[in-house]
Specification:
With 113 residues, this protein is an all-alpha fold. The protein has a single domain, classed as Orthogonal Bundle (434 Repressor (Amino-terminal Domain)), CATH 1.10.260. 62% of the residues lie in helices and 0% in strands.
Length: 113
């Protein structure tokens, strides 16, 4: 089953424990966007899709690919995470990716999958 852009945005947002206001604030602060809670609600309820520029910002914020956001890539198939890292140092980018994957897994748990 293909998931919608809106449902994926909502999963990622909830996985971080963010409200719609929180997501709007982060997009506006980090990328100079002009997004508000109402717009995010419309995206998540599949009434409208965000502009491509905003989709790119969302992908960067959650450190996921555009393919993942568009439902073309299953993050479970492309991500591998170890239970421990044996003292290995991760880059800031890698840590963000791990956190994004954790948020995705938590969002699935919250849906009972």
């Amino acid at each position: 089953m293909t998931r919608s852009l809106g449902s994926i945005i909502k999963e990622l947002r909830l996985g971080q424990g963010w409200s719609q206001d929180d997501l709007a604030e982060k997009l506006n602060k980090n990328f100079g966007a002009s997004v508000n809670k109402g717009m995010i609600s419309k995206w998540e309820n599949e009434l409208v899709d965000p502009r491509l520029e905003i989709v790119r910002y969302i992908a960067r914020l959650f450190n996921v690919s555009l393919d993942f956001l568009l439902g073309l890539e299953n993050k479970e198939e492309v991500e591998t995470i170890a239970a421990h890292h044996d003292g290995e140092d991760f880059t800031e980018e890698e840590l963000k990716e791990i956190e994004a994957f954790k948020a995705f897994v938590k969002s699935k748990r919250n849906r009972g999958e």
